[in-house]
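User: Hello! I'm new to structural biology and keep hearing that structure can be predicted from sequence alone. Could you demonstrate with Polyisoprenoid-binding protein YceI? Please show me the input and the output so I can see what each looks like.

Assistant: Of course. The first part below is the input, the amino acid sequence of Polyisoprenoid-binding protein YceI. The second part is the output, the predicted structure written as tokens.
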Amino acid sequence: MNRYAFAAATAAALAAVTGGIAAAPTIFAQGAPQVPGVQDPARVTAGTYALDAGHTLVGWEVSHFGFNDYLGLFGNITGTMTMDPANIEAAKVEVMVPIAEVSVASAGLKDHLLRPGKDGGAPDFFGPTPGMATFTSTKVVKTGAMTADVTGTLTMNGKSAPVTLTTEFVGAGANPFNKKDTVGFHARTTIDRTQWGVNYAAPFVGKDVTLTISAAFEKQ
């Protein structure tokens, strides 16, 4: 490529990039740095919300032989929430987590998590058709201006047990892309996996699993 052709190609590339920036929402424009979501309960409106599956995640952490912690992630999560900011304790939440879509750094570990049991026996972890883990709230207790404890039933692996999520309101506002009113929360809890029949290598691989949840709900 001669220098004239190179200059023309460079100019075309720059035009494509700057054109893409110009087409982006005004939120990204210079001089308009305000973040759409703000930790302001006055921005939350009453109604029915659906989880934003593309931006909701459940992380898990478990001790590996007491040497270090291993981390994994669930995504493509669905669910609904009905909420009135004037009566937070009447809120209802239902969440469904597809276990088979677990993400881990080790392909070998994912294979083990979803491996069928030997000789027709029970799998070590979830097996090849684990279905959904579901959480259905039964009680919400406001604990602060931005926090609440959300108690509910976690059903997984054919077993159910109560779980309480320590929850924090993170922010609310209009999503700049789809214009939907959005509310976000962080939540955390620790469960004993053996309550749901996931017993493999316990307690050498820790029984206690810490769940960290980042959830975004869009008003319907």
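User: So the tokens describe the shape?

Assistant: Right, they're a compact way of writing down the 3D structure. Reading them back into a model, for example: The beta strands are 47-51, 57-64, 68-74, 78-83, 92-98, 132-142, 147-156, 159-174, 181-192, 205-219.
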